[in-house]
Amino acid sequence: MDMTATSHLSPSHSQSTSTIEHLALLDSAYYNPDIAPTLPYQRTWTKWHIAALWVGMAICVPTYMLGGVLTSYFGLSISEALLTILLANIVILIPLTLNACPGTQYGIPFPVVLRSSFGIVGSNIPCLIRALVACGWFGIQTLFGGLAIHILLSTLFDGWANLASVGEVIGFFIFLLLNLIVVIKGANSIKWLETLSAPLLLLVGIGLMVWAMPHISMAQLLEEPAKRPATDSVWHYFFAGLTAMVGFWATLSLNIPDFSRYAQSQKAQITGQIIGLPLTMFFFAALGVVMTAASPTLVGESIADPIHLIGKIENPVIVAISMGILIIATLSTNTAANVVSPTNDIQNIAPKYINQTTGVLLTGLIGVLLMGWELLKKLGLTSSTVSLESLYSNWLIGYSCLLGPIAGIMIVDYFIIKQQRLDIHSLYTVDGHYPRFNKAGFIALIIPTLITLAAIVYNVIPWFYDYGWFTGSLTGGLIYYLVSPSSQSHYQLVTKSS
């Protein structure tokens, strides 16, 4: 049956038809209620909920530090860095809104959307690539959240400060537990958290900007020269930085169906993303630049992250309130951006044996393991000298090279090959129109990956790696179009089945 037809029925009839579809799939090994198509009563997210989701995700410690990353590691001036961040988040809106469409149209999450382009079983490979990146970010954000909890408890209880790094590790696991509880409670819990936190976080950001502005000269700050050779052209640095900033949300440009499946309409998801993402990212990155520049005057030294900066303030009431808000900010980012996706991706491996709760717990475990080196360093059990800031600034380009081709494949598959028509029943069974492994998807993923590896190892066409998300998405999408069966053959199959 063609599920698009249900959108033209009355709400009660549409819900009844969808329920029948659910019941027909109960025995399938590739189905469980958590990754099933959303029913009409579950689609309650308006454009403001979607916008709040992005505000809650964009306002976080890594966003605050992006300006510093671009000036320190990519050789851009502050004005160039802020412009790059704004442009990157306008660019990433394109794959975000396009890949959100099948989620809203059919109510299906990211792993199920991928079954169309990579196969019912083959979808697990790109899913796990996405999940691993999310778990890495989950660990990084949990470190920041744990540090905020440690500083908060140190402010409230004199004895806690004596725990030093051990207190940070305990804070890590407290924050980890908070994340798991929110996601286990489901989509409504995340919607509530994002809606509550979004206006609060914007008000706090504006307050911090007002506090810091009298202590700096904005004109002088924007006129500071870039940290690159004066004879070098800006364009190589700019496009490398742009690629990295696009890579920042390249993760969500894939799994955005995990959220758009709850949207009331395509207009709601598109409008909400346009409202919520670009300006929030620009504002909070600009706040990071301003606060870092003002920090020598405010606390006597230059500090690049907000948690350590606020921790230096001598007023315990301000510190306690600020840490509480930072904990909410990091929690709203982490749950939505870094727990939901791997939870769904892990379920996709064996839906009959892995439900949402199990997926959440496995995500938490992997996140802990990936951050094990940092936790051991805090406990003095290893002498690792890896900089967390340099780690995440360097891997933005690295993982965008893998995620770019997947984004291009998804867009071409849904809009060109499948002409926005999916057979939902077939996406949950190996007896339908979609193969276990779709060769076209893997050819289109492997070729850009091999070219990227050649660029890294042999220094051949290095620009292919430097601009990895753009080169990967364009190459992956083009190859997929060339090697896939014609769109007309799929159209005829789905029309015949409906």
Written account of the structure:
Helices cover 72% and strands 0% of the residues. It is globular. 53% of the residues are buried. By secondary structure, the chain is mainly α. It comes from Spartinivicinus poritis. It is a multi-pass membrane protein. The chain crosses the membrane at residues 48-74, 81-100, 132-153, 159-184, 196-214, 234-254, 275-298, 318-341, 353-376, 396-416, 437-461, 467-483.
List the helices and strands and how they pair.
Elements: H1 11-24, H2 47-58, H3 61-64, H4 66-73, H5 78-91, H6 93-106, H7 110-118, H8 124-156, H9 165-184, H10 187-212, H11 218-222, H12 234-248, H13 252-255, H14 257-260, H15 266-276, H16 278-299, H17 306-311, H18 316-349, H19 356-370, H20 372-378, H21 388-417, H22 439-457, H23 463-466, H24 468-483, H25 487-497
Helix pairs in contact: 2-10, 2-15, 2-18, 4-5, 5-12, 5-16, 6-15, 6-21, 7-21, 8-9, 8-18, 8-19, 8-21, 9-18, 9-19, 10-16, 10-18, 12-21, 18-19, 21-22, 21-24, 22-24
Features:
mainly alpha; 25 helices; 498 residues; 0% strand; disordered N terminus
Summarize the biggest pleated sheet.
none
Give the DSSP E fraction (strand runs of 2 or more residues). Answer: under 5%
Kindly, what is the distance between the CA atoms of the first and last residues, rounded to a whole number of angstroms? Answer: 4 Å
β-strand number: 0
The helicity comes to over 70%
Task: Find the structural class using helix and strand composition.
Answer: mainly alpha
| Tertiary shape | globular
Please tell me how large the radius of gyration is.
23 Å
Task: Supply the number of helical segments.
Answer: 25
* Arithmetic mean pLDDT: 86
Detail the poorly predicted runs.
1-17
Helices and strands, in order, run as HHHHHHHHHHHHHHHHHHHHHHHHH
